[in-house]
Amino acid sequence: MHHAAAKWYDRRDSVFVEFCVEDSKDVQVKFDKNKFDFSCVSGTDNIKHQNTVELFGAIIPEESKHRRTDRSVLCCLRKEEVGKSWPRLTKDKAKCNWLSVDFINWKDWEDDSDEDLSSFDKFSDMMNSMGGDDLPDLDGAEEEHDSADSDDESK
């Protein structure tokens, strides 16, 4: 059993935790007031992941949820105390080697208006619509250019 690598960030109403597991299956997330459990099987090697997180603050389990994509599992933990910032995800101050702060999504929200879970849904829909297959093949573009040059030389 391995820990799944995860990134997290804080918002006014919720805390988001993204487990970086590709091709996950048998995903199970159990939300409790002061902790949550995550487990899944990932990859072609069927690696089993298990994480239990004792949370810095309390959450509302019934309003917390998760969404799976091909590359990760994003969890939205609804804070019990809205507007209270979490300086860390875990109750324990010790650093977890599998957990890091998602600085890309971190922002100073204390002056923002209230957010709701619909932002989580919008983000999840965006993540689901973004597939790796749609990205341009930069290596292939060079090969096409090279083959076009060789055609010119043969004339």
From TrEMBL:
A GO term for molecular function: protein-folding chaperone binding
Top-level EC class as recorded in UniProt: isomerase
InterPro entries, A to Z: CS_dom, HSP20-like_chaperone, p23-like
Taxonomic lineage: Eukaryota, Metazoa, Chordata, Craniata, Vertebrata
Top-level taxonomic group: Eukaryota
Pathway: Lipid metabolism; prostaglandin biosynthesis
Family (UniProt): Belongs to the p23/wos2 family.
Catalytic activity, reaction form: prostaglandin H2 = prostaglandin E2
A GO term from the CC aspect: nucleus
Region of interest (Disordered), residue spans: 111-155
Protein name stated in the entry: Prostaglandin E synthase 3
GO term, biological process aspect, one: telomerase holoenzyme complex assembly
Keywords per UniProt: Cytoplasm, Fatty acid biosynthesis, Fatty acid metabolism, Isomerase, Lipid biosynthesis, Lipid metabolism, Prostaglandin biosynthesis, Prostaglandin metabolism
Location (main, coarse): cytoplasm
Biased composition (Acidic residues): 134-155
EC number: 5.3.99.3
Subcellular localization(s) per the UniProt record: Cytoplasm
Pfam families for this protein: CS
CS domain ranges (all copies): 1-90
